[in-house]
Specification:
The protein has 135 residues and is mainly α. It contains 5 helices and no strands.
């Protein structure tokens, strides 16, 4: 992601959205989700390290990844690469805050991972029935 051009708001299946879970993400991989923990502050609020990868939107094409809008607005301010991009004028700092018309977002990646793990473990048929009942 050499030139960050994130969406103006999280995509409909963004894992940072409170109203979405693993069943909403096309081709979801818990292993890949767990590998993204290094892009975010840890449970103590420390990190990520300088040079850590950036959290890409799962809908961006491979080789032309864009930053995840939910990640940027939730914890992007803590990433050294994001701060550097803002300082150099390559990223508009307004991307680091959710817009007034945005869905509610998780405050940490620990929350996101907990939700993704729970929804991955949930039986698919039960999840679909729950989703239909909520609609």
């Amino acid at each position: 992601m050499s030139e960050p051009k994130p969406a103006r708001q999280p995509c409909p299946s963004c894992p940072w959205r409170l109203d979405q879970d693993a069943r909403d993400i096309p081709n979801f991989s818990l292993t890949l989700a767990e590998n993204l923990a290094g892009t975010c502050p840890d449970h103590r609020g420390m990190g990520p390290d300088f040079g850590a990868p950036l959290f890409a939107c799962h809908q961006s094409p491979i080789g032309r990844e864009t930053h995840c809008a939910g990640w940027l607005a939730s914890v992007g301010h803590a990433h050294p690469g994001v701060r550097l991009a803002v300082t150099r004028g390559r990223l508009d700092p307004t991307h680091l805050e959710p817009g007034s018309d945005w869905p509610a977002l998780h405050e940490s990646y620990a929350e996101v991972l907990d939700k993704l793990r729970r929804s991955t473990a949930a039986p698919a048929a039960q999840g679909g029935q729950q989703r239909q009942a909520q609609a």
